[in-house]
Amino acid sequence: EAWGKNASRNTCGFGANLYCEIIRPVYPSADPALVTLLMMQAYFSGVTQSPLTSYAILTGTIEILFTNAADAYLFVLTQTALLMVALISCWFSRIIMRNSLYRAIADLGVPSIPGECIASELQYLKKCNN
Fold first, then answer.
1. Which of 37, 93, 94, 105 would suit a FRET pair with 83, their CA atoms being 20 to 30 Å apart?
2. pTM as predicted
């Protein structure tokens, strides 16, 4: 069994250890795939501090899991859980770090190569049209 008693020793990653050591003893029927999905949502929303964007991206990736009409109720519950996890992790992330990772990188003053390329292309097009 992949998620057996010693699964945390046989797998790597924080999610597997969290599932085996904390979630499974408290809630034995928890689905490992759903726990992984919620952990991905929490991480992504916390790093970007953009809960709706991260929710929309992960929602697009999980539509494949729910293929028949019987899963519609489970799909709605999963969507609600993902949205709540996104909002809560974003809130905690803002308590810990005021700016998101992307804002911190932008504040370092890293030059924007694509922007410079676009500006030079626009200047070239203006010259061609004149």
1. 105
2. 0.64
Spatial separation of the C-alpha atoms in residues 16 and 43, rounded to whole Å: 15
Q: Per residue in 21-43, pLDDT tens?
A: 788 888 888 777 788 788 888 88
pLDDT of residue 36: 79
Phi first, then psi: what are they for 48, rounded to 5°? -85, -20
Q: How far apart are CA 53 and CA 50, in angstroms?
A: 6
DSSP-assigned states of every residue in the chain: -TTSTTHHHHS-SHHHHHIIIIIHHH-TT--HHHHHHHHHHHHHHHHHT-HHHHHHHHHHHHTTT--SGGGHHHHHHHHHHHHHHHHHHHHHHHHH-SS-HHHHHHHTT---HHHHHHHHHHHHHHHHH-
Distance CA 56, CA 82 (A): 10
**Alpha carbon distance 93, 7 (integer Å):** 29
Cα gap 112→106, rounded to integer Å? 9
CB count in 10 Å sphere of residue 54? 24
